[in-house]
Design brief:
Blueprint: H1 6-13, E1 19-27, E2 32-37, E3 41-43, E4 46-49, E5 52-55, E6 58-63, E7 68-69, E8 74-79, E9 103-110, E10 122-128, E11 133-134, E12 138-144, H2 147-150, E13 153-154, E14 178-180, E15 208-217, E16 222-226, E17 232-234, E18 240-244, E19 247-251, E20 254-256, E21 263-266, E22 270-276, E23 278-286, E24 289-291, E25 307-311, E26 316-323, E27 331-345, E28 353-356, E29 359-360, E30 371-375, E31 391-398, E32 404-418, E33 424-427, E34 431-432, E35 442-443, E36 452-453, E37 471-478, E38 481-483, H3 507-518, H4 528-535, H5 541-546, E39 557-559, E40 562-564, H6 565-576, E41 578-582, E42 588-592, E43 604-607, E44 611-618, E45 627-635, E46 640-648, H7 650-653, E47 665-669, H8 675-689, E48 694-700, E49 713-717, E50 735-743, E51 746-753
Parallel strand pairs: 2-4, 34-40, 43-49, 45-47
Antiparallel strand pairs: 1-2, 1-9, 3-4, 5-8, 6-7, 6-50, 8-12, 9-10, 10-12, 11-12, 13-40, 14-39, 15-16, 15-37, 16-21, 17-38, 18-19, 18-37, 19-22, 20-21, 22-32, 23-26, 24-25, 25-32, 26-31, 27-30, 27-32, 28-29, 28-31, 33-37, 35-36, 41-42, 44-48, 45-46, 48-51, 49-50, 50-51
Helix pairs in contact: 3-4, 3-6
Length: 755
């Protein structure tokens, strides 16, 4: 809601108030303006010429189901007769002043509160369209919002040949990615051993792409790549990979990925790739036993998930596991078994052995908590050049004396090789431009600008590209943590639970970082209080819609394809059920939807006696979605999502009074690696979309409510008890404004029930 000064607010409450607008039309370098109104008005030294013949409606709307907003725009008709302004026509000013693509500002005033062009009275701002037409009677101006002046193509930084003279030719003019969130160590696998296991992507959440910017830097004797153009929270030299034949392999000779952050440097062609075994269909033999055999290759180092071998003196025990088919990735160097032991009972020396593939670990090293790697090349003699490793791999405990108990937390195979080239990633498109397909539209009537509410017919996929530009790009990949909070998170007296240099995982503040870091906006252009209302760690509305603690909503993604900044923001908004728009005061604002039981107060209460009720209706049946699938965990090497969750609502699908007798699907791609976040997002969409919503269209007969904006929450008082809301009395029901069309003496509003 706009914050009017008290003098204006009090004046608007008076029954005899006459409200009016004054408009500033800036020209040339925007240091000067021409003021216009419905009649001559003076504000100090500023003159507002009374040449406005007709005000168009100042309209703004949001799409409740797709979490997008329309531009706030209007038109104005000016008298253009001879001597109407400055001794001539308004059109004559065009010869000396250029208004096209310059700023406009609109202010609400009243006869009782004077004429002021202060920020506390501004209700709209934007740019003057270049589409200006006139005749000898009138000039017609179209006034647009500022979206086109702010938004741009992202990422803004590319591999330009001037800066990166030795970049691979195919990478020139391709985007340097933007990385957000935690791609680092998995937190649900126990303590990852730091000796050898911690360098393999298998034990990390994911890996974001880093585009190669220098094929070989002579001064550094290395290849260079960038995962972002901004300093990242965490990078390390052990977790840089190539993607080859469907697998990630660790670059052995990474020169630096820390001090040069976000630049990564590596040399040589050496790689190591880790491959877990398959426990499916394992067999055993010998005298002894094995506990929890499937835990040997399960990727978990938690001591409660241990595989344990047992055998007695003079005996042996064997468990046979399957070696996977491994695609050849380069020139073979070696193959080893990598094992993390838990508690080992008994001494492994002499004829007491622990063997993998009939190759014993060296004597005396198989001890409790050891992390050991041992060559098993002899097992594959004659097959290494062709990488024919598939087959049976036995794990054997042999005891010549004494009982032996061996705990294994994790074990797998490591193949070392030399790559012959970085594998280019081929994309069918590199420009993201999400579109709505098969949408069910609800035409808006009586709200200038034509508000439309749409929903995807079968699937809503937020990464569908529409501009097909074939591209081959050379990337390496790294597990780390993306951008840090800049100083803005602590500025302006903010207290939202985050500090400068913390990792940005909260999607609300990812949007704010895009506005500030990529679009170069400052606090004067951003309603940061609204961002804190949505994203604050303690009571942000993001936690309400996700039905979870705000800190548990974890987003992580790399923006490595070109996309318009507005499309990127809208994509994130879809995933946090929020709307970002330019407010009437010229600032970017965010409004986050909450669940029905979370509303306890309204931005404003509307007196039924002040409105003309136009209609009560429900949203379209085509907007209902009761079968929700969330795709998440994008693998950037494969360029596809590898995980999904699904939730349904049987009541909504049923044949009762609350059912629609149909399963209606919605599928959404999510910028998260976290299963809990994806699950709660699916539940949020099901909760909101499973039912039709009550809508009320009404006209406010007084300007008292012209401080309202889209996304505001309203209550109604003095509602006519004879008018039921689908059979129920109007109680303490909260409604969200989805469309508002303002004029000097009132406004038209559409609102959807959200409580």
């Amino acid at each position: 809601m706009l914050s009017f000064d008290s003098s204006l607010s009090n004046s608007l409450l008076l029954g005899n108030t006459t409200a009016f607008w004054v408009l500033k039309l800036y020209y040339n370098d925007e240091s000067s303006f021409t003021g216009v109104s419905d009649k001559d008005r003076i504000d100090g030294s500023d003159m507002y010429h009374g040449i406005v013949s007709a005000w168009g409606n100042l309209s703004h709307s949001l799409d409740f189901f797709n979490f997008t907003t329309s531009t706030g725009n209007m038109s104005v008709k000016l008298i253009n007769t001879d001597n109407s302004i400055s001794g001539g026509r308004f059109s004559d000013l065009f010869s000396t002043n250029n208004y096209a693509n310059r700023k406009w500002e609109l202010f609400l005033n009243t006869n009782n509160a004077g004429t002021y062009d202060t920020a506390a009275r501004m209700i709209g701002t934007g740019i003057i369209s270049g589409d200006i037409s006139y005749d000898t009677s009138f000039t017609n101006l179209k006034l647009l919002d500022k979206s086109s002046t702010y938004h741009k193509q992202l990422p803004t930084n590319v591999v330009d040949s001037a800066t990166y003279a030795n970049a691979p030719e195919k990478n020139v003019n391709k985007p340097i990615p933007m990385a957000y969130g935690d791609f680092y160590e998995k937190t649900d696998v126990g303590t990852i051993p730091t000796g050898k296991f911690d360098r393999f992507k298998h034990y990390y959440k994911s890996a974001f792409p880093a585009i190669i910017t220098d094929k070989f830097d002579v001064g550094q004797a290395s290849v260079e790549a960038y995962a972002d153009n901004e300093i990242m929270h965490t990078l390390d030299s052990e977790n840089v990979y190539i993607y080859k034949n469907g697998q990630y392999a660790t670059l052995i000779d990474t020169v630096d990925a820390t001090s040069n952050n976000p630049r990564i440097e590596f040399s040589g062609a050496g790689c190591k790739a880790y491959f877990p075994l398959s426990s499916s269909g394992y067999t055993t033999s010998g005298t002894g036993s094995i506990d929890n055999p499937t835990n040997l290759p399960n990727g978990v180092f938690d001591t409660s998930n241990i595989c344990e071998f047992h055998t007695t003196s003079g005996n042996f025990f064997i468990a046979n596991y399957a070696m996977p088919v491994i695609n050849k990735m380069g020139e073979y160097v070696g193959i080893t078994a990598l094992t993390k032991f838990g508690t080992v009972t008994g001494s492994f020396e002499g004829f007491n052995k622990f063997l993998v593939g009939n190759v014993a670990y060296p004597l005396g090293v198989v001890v409790s908590n050891a992390e050991l790697e041992n060559s098993i090349a002899s097992v594959f003699s004659g097959k290494t050049d062709s990488w024919e490793f598939e087959g049976v791999l036995p794990y054997k405990v042999f005891s010549s004396s004494g009982d032996k108990d061996v705990e294994v937390l994790e074990s797998g195979i490591v193949v070392e090789f030399k790559y012959d080239s970085i594998e280019s990633r081929t994309f069918t498109e590199i420009v993201e431009n999400p579109s709505i397909e098969g949408a069910d539209a609800i035409a808006d009537t009586g709200f200038g600008g034509g508000s439309v509410q749409t929903v995807q017919e079968n699937k809503t996929i937020t990464r569908t590209g529409t501009k097909l530009i074939p591209a081959e790009i050379d990337y390496v990949y790294c597990s780390g943590k993306g951008r840090k909070y800049p100083a803005f998170i602590d500025a302006d007296g903010r207290d939202n639970g985050y500090d400068e240099d913390d990792l940005i995982e909260n999607p609300v503040y990812m949007i704010e970082d895009i506005l500030r870091t990529e679009l170069s906006l400052a606090s004067a252009n951003i309603d940061y209080d609204s961002f804190d209302a949505s994203g604050d760690t303690s009571d942000g509305y993001l936690g309400d819609i996700y039905n979870d603690a705000v800190g548990d909503v974890e987003f992580a993604f790399s923006q490595y394809k070109f996309i318009n900044s507005k499309d990127l923001i809208n994509r994130i908004c879809k995933q946090i059920l929020s709307w970002v728009f330019i407010s009437g005061d010229g600032k970017f604002k965010i409004k986050t939807l909450r669940r029905a039981g979370d509303y306890a107060s309204a931005d404003k209460t509307i007196d039924f006696n002040d409105i003309n009720l136009k209609s009560i209706s429900r949203t379209s049946l085509g907007a209902v979605r009761n079968d929700i699938t969330i795709n998440y965990n994008q693998d950037y090497g494969q360029d596809q999502f590898v995980s999904h969750v699904n939730t349904t609502d049987s009541t909504s699908q049923g044949t009762t009074v609350n059912g629609v007798s149909q399963s209606l699907k919605l599928e959404l791609d999510a910028d998260t690696l976290d299963s809990t976040t994806a699950t709660q997002l699916a539940d949020a969409y099901k909760t909101i979309f499973k039912d039709r919503k009550v809508m009320i269209d009404f006209e406010c007969l007084r300007p008292t409510y012209n401080d309202l904006e889209i996304g505001d929450i309203v209550l109604f008082s003095n509602w006519d008890s004879n008018i039921k809301i689908y059979g129920a009395a109007m109680g303490t029901d909260y409604y969200l404004i989805t469309s508002i069309s303002k004029k000097p003496n009132g406004c038209s509003v559409r609102a959807i029930k959200v409580s």
